[in-house]
Automatic annotation (TrEMBL):
InterPro entries: ThiF/MoeB/HesA, ThiF_NAD_FAD-bd, Ubiquitin-activating_enz. It comes from the Bacteria. GO terms for molecular function: tRNA threonylcarbamoyladenosine dehydratase; ubiquitin-like modifier activating enzyme activity. This is Putative molybdenum biosynthesis cofactor, MoeB/ThiF family. One of its GO terms (biological process) is cyclic threonylcarbamoyladenosine biosynthetic process. Pfam families: ThiF. Residues 12-210 form the THIF-type NAD/FAD binding fold domain. The lineage of its organism: Bacteria, Pseudomonadati, Campylobacterota, Epsilonproteobacteria, Campylobacterales.
C-alpha cells in the first residue's frame, strides 16, 4: 500500500492529513520541497499558486526545473497528479480578493515583503511563513519560532518592522535561519532551501495532527 508507512507512523490521525486542505504560495526552492513532502505524506488536497516559468538558474534548487521555460504550476501538476494549480502573480490585490476560507493551512514561500505582510494580516491563524533561505548552506542553523522571536535574519527583521508599522501584533510561525549571509547576491543552496521546505512540511503535519 502506497501510504502504509505513513499510516503506521500516524495511526488513526492519518485521516486528518488526508482530509486537510493546504495552499502553497510560491513553489520555488522552498515551496516545491514543501509540496513534495506534503504529497508524499498523504496530503493531496493541495493548491499551489505561482506565475513564473523555469529558468536554467533555478536548476540548482527547484523541483521540476528540468523543464526550462515551462510554467511551474504546469510542470508540478504533471509531477504531482491531483493537486490544483493557480497560475497568478500574487500581489496585494490578489491577497485581498482571494478566498482563503477553504484552506486549513497557508504556506507562504514567496519573496515579496508587501505580500507577506498582507498575508500575515489576513490569515495569520493559518499561516506558516518562510523567510530568508538564500545566501546560506548550513541546514543545522534552521529554526522555527514566532515571527517576534525570530533572529539573525535580515528578511525576518524587515517583516517585523513593517508589521509594527501596520500596528500588527498577532502571532504566527516562521521558518528562518540565523546563519550569517555568505554573499550579497542571489546565491542559494538546496541543502538549505530544500530543508526549509521540509521543515515547513513537518510544521504543517504537527499543526494538522493537533486539530
Amino acid at each position: 500500500m502506497r501510504f502504509e508507512r505513513c499510516r503506521t507512523l500516524f495511526g488513526d490521525d492519518f485521516t486528518k492529513l488526508q482530509n486537510a486542505k493546504v495552499l502553497i504560495i510560491g513553489v520555488g526552492g522552498v515551496g516545491s520541497y514543501a509540496l513534495d513532502c506534503l504529497y508524499r505524506s498523504g496530503i493531496h488536497h493541495i493548491t499551489i499558486v505561482d506565475y513564473d516559468t523555469y529558468d536554467i538558474t533555478n536548476q540548482n534548487r527547484q523541483i521540476g526545473s528540468d523543464a526550462v521555460g515551462a510554467y511551474k504550476t504546469d510542470r508540478l501538476c504533471e509531477l504531482y497528479q491531483g493537486i490544483k494549480t493557480i497560475n497568478a502573480q500574487v500581489d496585494i490585490a490578489w491577497v485581498k480578493e482571494f478566498d482563503f476560507d477553504p484552506f486549513d493551512i497557508i504556506i507562504d514561500s514567496c519573496d515579496t515583503t508587501k505580500v507577506k505582510i498582507e498575508l500575515a494580516k489576513k490569515v495569520y491563524k493559518k499561516l506558516i511563513m518562510s523567510v530568508g533561505s538564500a545566501k546560506r548552506f548550513d541546514a543545522s542553523k534552521i529554526k522555527v519560532d514566532s515571527i517576534w522571536r525570530s533572529y539573525g535574519d535580515a528578511f525576518a527583521s524587515k517583516i517585523r518592522r513593517e508589521l509594527k508599522k501596520e500596528k500588527f501584533d498577532r502571532n504566527f510561525k516562521v521558518v528562518f535561519s540565523d546563519e550569517d549571509a555568505k554573499c550579497k547576491e542571489k546565491g542559494s543552496c538546496v541543502a538549505v532551501t530544500g530543508a526549509f521546505g521540509l521543515t515547513i512540511c513537518s510544521e504543517v503535519i504537527k499543526k494538522l495532527l493537533k486539530k
